[in-house]
Design the sequence.
């Protein structure tokens, strides 16, 4: 009970809710860098995934490269980014940039793989029917494939978001604030209340992000058609009403 | 830009840290596999425990690893357990999912044929179901291994006695010494990718009937599906 009480006391202490190392600032830092990484990763991965999915050209190689990239440890990515960013800017190079670059690189594979898989899983009969109706290739993509794949794509973005939020935590070690700061300082200063409060906040943010993207993904899922009772057999108009067209 | 003299002087350290890295990873995977196998057999016998197990291990998997490592410090101090316990917990989601899916993929008529031939439950599990479940189990071990190798680097945040190759990344950063950072980061990356590729080869060996599908340069035997669990990044 002791430590739980300490954590509640720490989290509800007004002093921890203000200033540059206060909870709102740390949450904002964490969310801002995560969102930036997620947006940039999406801007890179979505067009590639849509292109290779839609044209079915080079899809397997793109997925294989993305799959192999998933094997690279994020800390190694940060480490490899440091010497490069130091060349660009010795000041910032040792601070926020390496973590940001690693977060972007990590975010790309899940979005790319899910976009490609989502688009290629769309029933071929549907896209051929759309082609036959005279839709252009772009219209097929935006009007048929994208809406049907949206839920799978969103799951990929959600998976990227969770990985990115976790990696942002490491940023605290590399000179960037965020919620990881409470963990690093908590260990360094033997402050268990701060440490466990940090654990609670970091875990809540990650689990919350996963739940939010899961909800979005379900909301985007295409409506199931009840194939047991084909719509054609049901009267589509009240009797007596003249059919239009 | 790279201080090659320093690199040559520290090759012994590199070997030592690589062994430490693999030691942590193998210990966590072995313990994780034993726990996951038991949980999976339990789930296969009592279906209703599967959803809670996946739900709980799924939430654990979502928690950033630095938080779980840090949370262990006040409990287990700076002992090996502080690194091993979270590493083990992070293997469970992937392993349980894949072991259960592997046994589920065994066709019911194969099980019935085995029963008809007089196999006991235990013998059937070992001689009939396990070989057929292997492709998915090994696929799970592969993702769990890659994930664990990555996470071992992060244990370096706990102090110099931890981290495997990650030690060089943390120390190099503290000393603002890019050579040492790369000295840890590049071997860590090579190790993860090499283990990934090696386990693909193992997958092919254990499941010769799928070998025809393996194409040169493919990093995966099975097509990646959208709901695969990705290796844990951090």
Sequence:
């Amino acid at each position: 009970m002791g430590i739980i009480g300490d954590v509640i006391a720490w989290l509800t202490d007004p002093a921890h809710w203000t200033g540059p190392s206060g909870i709102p600032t740390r949450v904002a830092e964490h969310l801002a860098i995560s969102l930036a990484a997620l947006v940039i990763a999406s801007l890179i991965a979505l067009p590639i995934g849509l292109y290779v999915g839609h044209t079915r050209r080079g899809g397997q190689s793109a997925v294989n490269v993305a799959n192999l990239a998933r094997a690279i440890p994020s800390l190694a990515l940060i480490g490899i980014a440091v010497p490069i960013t130091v060349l660009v800017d010795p000041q910032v190079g040792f601070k926020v940039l390496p973590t940001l670059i690693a977060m972007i690189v990590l975010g790309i594979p899940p979005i790319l793989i899910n976009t490609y898989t989502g688009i290629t899983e769309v029933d071929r009969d549907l896209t051929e029917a759309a082609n036959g109706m005279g839709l252009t290739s772009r219209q097929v993509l935006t009007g048929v494939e994208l809406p049907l794949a949206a839920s799978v794509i969103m799951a990929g973005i959600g998976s990227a978001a969770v990985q990115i939020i976790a990696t942002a935590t490491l940023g605290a070690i590399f000179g960037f604030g965020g919620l990881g700061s409470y963990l690093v300082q908590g260990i360094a200063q033997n402050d268990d209340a701060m440490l466990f409060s940090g654990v609670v906040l970091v875990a809540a943010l990650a689990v919350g992000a996963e739940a939010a993207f899961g909800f979005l993904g379900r909301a985007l899922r295409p409506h199931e058609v009840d194939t047991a009772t084909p719509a054609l057999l049901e009267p589509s108009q009240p009797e007596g009403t003249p059919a239009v067209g | 830009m790279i201080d090659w003299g320093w690199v040559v002087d520290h090759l012994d350290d590199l070997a030592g840290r690589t062994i430490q890295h693999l030691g942590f990873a193998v210990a966590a995977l072995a313990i994780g596999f034993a726990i996951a196998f038991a949980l999976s057999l339990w789930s296969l016998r009592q279906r209703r425990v599967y959803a809670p197990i996946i739900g709980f291990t799924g939430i654990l998997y979502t928690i950033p690893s630095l938080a779980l490592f840090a949370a262990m410090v006040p409990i287990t101090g700076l002992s090996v357990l502080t690194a091993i316990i979270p590493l083990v917990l992070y293997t469970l989601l992937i392993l349980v999912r894949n072991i259960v899916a592997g046994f589920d993929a065994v066709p019911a008529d194969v099980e019935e044929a085995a029963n008809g031939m007089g196999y006991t439950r235990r013998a059937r599990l070992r001689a009939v179901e396990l070989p057929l479940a292997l492709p998915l189990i090994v696929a799970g071990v592969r993702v769990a291994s890659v994930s664990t190798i990555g996470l071992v680097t992060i244990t370096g945040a706990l102090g110099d006695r931890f981290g495997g190759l990650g030690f060089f990344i943390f120390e190099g950063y503290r000393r603002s010494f890019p050579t040492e950072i790369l000295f840890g980061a590049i071997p860590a990356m090579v190790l993860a990718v090499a283990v990934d590729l090696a386990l693909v080869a193992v997958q092919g060996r254990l499941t010769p009937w799928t070998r025809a599908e393996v194409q040169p340069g493919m990093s995966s035997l099975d097509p990646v599906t959208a709901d695969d669990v990705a290796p844990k990044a951090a």
